[in-house]
Amino acid sequence: MARRMLVAGNWKMHGTAADLDAIGEIAMGAGDGCDVALCLPATLIERAARRHADFAIGGQDVHQADKGAHTGCISAAMLLDAGATLTIVGHSERRQAQGESDADVRGKAEAALAAGLDVILCVGESDAIREAGQAVSTVSAQLDASIPGSIGDPTDFSIAYEPIWAIGTGKIPSIDDIHEMHAALRGRLIAAYGEAGGAVRILYGGSVKASNAAEIFSVDDVDGALVGGASLKAADFLPIVEAARKS
Ligand code: 13P
């Protein structure tokens, strides 16, 4: 099944008003031929979305509840109200530092999709799990426990496979290991959603750069990337977008 590539930047806790020009450079340079998005700190979403109405701006997390006594949290309706069209859920930095469970991640994904946000749901293994030879079984189980019961339009929902040991380290799995994982996750998505599971995009994330993007994008069932550090500057990010467009 032909899937349109998606390259999303995750700015994590980086960015102030001084970076709005960099966001503009990326938004203007994104072009056609593949989907491009930036998931920004909450404080920048509205300003960026207002300046670049045709460019996809997202959040990095969302709360599963509509509203209530949840200090510091943001609901799907609030993200939409600020101009976001998508959100990341289940990033390993939140699963680890905020203790988010698979059930929490599933609740967040369901709330976001129900509100009309596209979702990028992250899964990935630690280095200890990889070294124990349990990466595929562990990440498959994590996916099964984290994904929503139903997803509506499958092109609104993406998975990001992000090995924890590859994030911000410059290390990436072998091409064979990426292929093995993405094929396994595709199988789980088809088991969960039938034919629609073939239309869900599976992104790779973890130390994606201009120098390795084309090779990663050549792998079957790699439908784009979730990019951290290399998404902060147009000069680093746009060549990754270009590699996706050409793949
Ligand atoms: P890096 O691209 O900096 O390794 O980060 C990946 C990531 O965590 C994206 O969500």
In short:
With 247 residues, the chain is α/β, with parallel strands linked by helices.
Please characterize this protein's 3D structure:
This protein is of the alpha/beta class and about 250 residues long. It has one domain (about 25-170, about 185-245): Aldolase class I (TIM Barrel), CATH 3.20.20.70. About 40% of the residues lie in helices and about 15% in strands. The protein has helices spanning about 20-30, 40-50, 75-80, 90-95, 100-115, 125-130, 135-145, 175-195, 210-215, 235-245; strands at about 5-10, 35-40, 55-60, 85-90, 120-125, 155-160, 200-205, 225. An 8-stranded parallel beta barrel has the order 1-2-3-4-5-6-7-8, surrounded by 6 helices. Strand 3 (about 55-60), helix 3 and strand 4 (about 85-90) form a beta-alpha-beta unit. It is globular. The model has no long low-confidence stretch (mean pLDDT about 95). Bound molecules: 1,3-dihydroxyacetonephosphate (13P). 1,3-dihydroxyacetonephosphate binds near residues 168, 208, 226 and 227.
Q: How many β strands by DSSP?
A: 8
| CATH architect. name | Alpha-Beta Barrel
Q: What is the CATH level 1 assignment?
A: Alpha Beta
- Net shape: globular
Any low-confidence stretches, pLDDT <50, length ≥5? none
Q: What is the average of the pLDDT values?
A: 97
In CATH, the topology is named TIM Barrel
CATH superfamily: Aldolase class I
What would you report as the Rg, rounded to the nearest angstrom? Answer: 17 Å
